Every structure is written in structure tokens, then in C-alpha cells.
Amino acid sequence: MFTGQDPDAIQRQYADDNYLRVMQDTHDQYSSPAIDFPNWVLDRCGLRGDEHLLDVGAGAGRYYQPLLARYPSLHYTALDISPGMMTGLSAVQRIAADAAALPFASGTFDVILANHMLYHLPNIASGLRETQRILKPDGLLVASTNSAGTMPQLVELMRRGILLLSKPGTPLTQMPPPPHITFSLENGAQQMARHFYAVVRHDLPGTLVFPDTDSTLRYLETWRPMREPQLPAGVKWDDLLLVVRDQVNRIIKLFGQLAVEKVSGVLIATQSGGFIRGYRQQMQMTPSK
């Protein structure tokens, strides 16, 4: 099964920040209710403001400005495997490195952000061990991701297109799974719990409301690097989007919009800090019987 960990596909997806910006801009512009996702995540972290924070898979630095606005004394370091993704972060410390081999001493950071990126690691368990290693004992790992069942309407539109373009007699084909399938809200908490004492999950349901076909297809094009290599033989990406365009046109003509349900969220893990700190302190103070 394709898992979103193919190195060539990841390179195409993140050679620069073009695809990522379209994805983020789409969610910012068309989400209902309108919620600033980075600030929603930070609201759940409970930071003091003086922490040493590492942003793994920082990309163009989506979390940097919200962090700076809240915590001007925060020590922020950006890390990404693709230097081309971090060109907009010239004012901060930038490190090009692999998240599976973090170039830091043990116990260096108070907080690690790993937002919408852990599912790209070939070995997620190794990546989680690395984050645990470089976190302080009461540090936090903050990892946002999506539900495995997010955006079912878009998935169904693409599946129908694949079916229509497949040769007669071809076994029923499914839409290639999303890259986050290996680290979703549903299974990510279980994976983190193998390495951290406590994990809390926060879900954010919402809807993408596309007002026209072009905005829908522009967003779907961001799926291309990850999903095109997994299309059935004989099904071409451009042909698939032509079929999907026709379907979306019909839906918008009928309803005036295309509504797509989505669920994203964040998983926060720790050994003894953050949301679990008081409980751990109480457990340590309670005499054993």
C-alpha cells in the first residue's frame, strides 16, 4: 500500500512551498467555521513563552509568526529536510536535516512541533524516539495531522473518476490512500503512546466550502505528487481531473457550492509536562500503601 513515504514523491511535493501554500491558503479561505489553525493548535499547548522550541518540518514557517506574536521571548529553531522550503525564514535559525536523525544533544528542547509531517517518515517509530530523546523530561511533542476519513466527498469524486477511466473488466479500484494514513488522528495517538507517558488528542471538525470549480481543482492539483504515481495502469492524472471537473461543475450548478467535510487535529505527548504535570506531581507525593 502507498503510504506517502516515497522519497521521489516527497521530493516533488516539497521541492518548494508552492503546493503547501495552495493547501494552506485553501483551508484559510474556504473553511467553515473560519479558524486560524496554527493558533488553534497553540491554544492547546499551554506554553509559558520562554521555551526552546524546535519546529520539525517547519516548511515556510506557518507557526513562526503566531508563536512570535504570542511569545516574543521564545527560542525558535526551524528544521526541514528541504532547504528550499525555509526560504521565508531568513530571520531565524534554520537547519536542513532529516527528522529521523535530529542533530541535537539529548534533552535540548522544551517543545517540538511536528505538524503534518510525521506520516512522511519511512520509520515513524524511529522519528518518535528521536523526538523523545531531544526533549527535556517535561517537554511536549505537538503533532498535528488529519483524520483517516477526512474529505470523503473529494475522495469519492476521485474514485468515481478512476472507475470511469479504467478499462472494462478492471477490478474495482480505490482512490490511492492519503499520505497521512500512516499517522492519522486515529492511529497516531497509539503510536505516540508507545514512546510517551501520556497523549491527548484534540479534534477540529469543519467544512471546506468551495464556491466554484476552479478553486476545487486547484486544491486537488496539490494531491498530484503523492497520488499520481499510484493511479491504476492506463489512468492519467490530467484525464482524471477532467472527469472530476465535470462532476464538480454539475454539483456546483445544482447546489451553488461543493461542501467537503474535514477533520484535522493535534496530538500532544509528554512524559511529565504540560497537561499531565499536576497528575504526575500528585502521584509522586501520594505515599504507596
What does this 3D model show about the protein?
The chain has one domain (7-285): 3-Layer(aba) Sandwich (Rossmann fold). Helix 5 links the parallel strand 5 (109-113) and strand 6. The chain is built from eleven helices and eight strands. Helix 8 packs antiparallel against helix 10. The protein is 38% helix and 21% strand. It is α/β, with parallel strands linked by helices. Strands 1-7-8-6-5-2-3-4 form an eight-stranded mixed beta sheet. The chain has helices at residues 7-14, 18-30, 37-43, 64-70, 124-134, 152-165, 185-193, 213-220, 224-227, 237-255, 277-285, and strands at residues 31-32, 52-56, 75-80, 93-96, 109-113, 135-146, 198-210, 258-270.
Outline the fold blueprint:
Layout: H1 7-14, H2 18-30, E1 31-32, H3 37-43, E2 52-56, H4 64-70, E3 75-80, E4 93-96, E5 109-113, H5 124-134, E6 135-146, H6 152-165, H7 185-193, E7 198-210, H8 213-220, H9 224-227, H10 237-255, E8 258-270, H11 277-285
Parallel strand pairs: 2-3, 2-5, 3-4, 5-6
Antiparallel strand pairs: 1-7, 6-8, 7-8
How does CATH name the architecture? Answer: 3-Layer(aba) Sandwich
The average pLDDT value, as a whole number, equals 89
Largest sheet: 8 strands, mixed
Percentage beta strand? 15-25%
Which spans of ≥5 residues are poorly predicted at pLDDT below 50?
A: none
What is the H/E order?
A: HHEHEHEEEHEHHEHHHEH
Strand order of the largest sheet: 1-7-8-6-5-2-3-4
What is the helical fraction, as a range of percent?
Answer: 25-40%
